[in-house]
Amino acid sequence: MIHIPITYQQNKHLDNLIEQTKQLAQKWQFQFLSYEQIENAAPPFYMQLTDEHLQLVEINGKTKPLFIDFNAGNYRHRRLFGGGKNQLISKAVGLNKGFTPHVLDATAGLGRDAFVLASLGCEVTMLERTNILASLLENALTQAEKSNEIKDIKKRLHLI
Question: Are 54 and 48 in contact (CB under 8 A)?
């Protein structure tokens, strides 16, 4: 388990974000710090809850925050234009053979392969051992429930 602090983004919904952040800290064993405490502690990375998503942030801001959004970016592009069942990952699990397997993704990571397979009809169980990635995946699944475009795909994704 990687130990990392978590905080919230300051905005107009501050009370709600603080409570949600505390709940995430307890669930994922993150160290809860207020926005001010994060600035004073200056860890190299920290988790941050915003109105849109949960993200991993580098304190010096040299890299963009890392978050997972199944309805945007590469996930959306691959779902719409990725080649369907002709993709290597779909061939690897046998989708081109006329059956739709239940897939165990034992190294879920950012959920890219799992999302592609679920978008092609597979039931996918994602295993992720790190609390950072698992929390980002769980947040992405929660956000996917709100999207009419991908909520049916989300129903085929299960996180452990």
Answer: yes
Whole-angstrom Cα distance, residue 28 to residue 100? 33
35, amino acid identity? Y
Sign of CA dihedral 31, 16, 61, 130: positive
Residues facing residue 47 across a β-bridge: 6, 56
In angstroms, rounded to a whole number, what is the distance separating the alpha carbons of residues 73 and 105?
A: 21
Q: b or e along 65-75 (b: 16 or more beta carbons within 10 Å of the residue's beta carbon)?
A: ebbbbbbeeeb
Q: Is the pLDDT of residue 56 over 80?
A: yes
* Cβ-based neighbour number of residue 90 at 10 Å: 22
Residue type, 58: E
Residue closest to 35 by CA, chosen among 65, 14, 66, 4: 14
Categorize the per-residue pLDDT at 54 as very low, low, confident or very high, splitting at 50, 70 and 90.
very high
Q: How far apart are CA 34 and CA 94, in angstroms?
A: 48
pLDDT at residue 48 tops 90: yes
DSSP state of 66: B
> What is the Cα Rg of the chain in Å?
17
What is the per-residue pLDDT for 118?
Answer: 96
What are the pLDDT digits (tens) for 90-121? Answer: 889 988 777 899 999 999 999 999 999 999 99
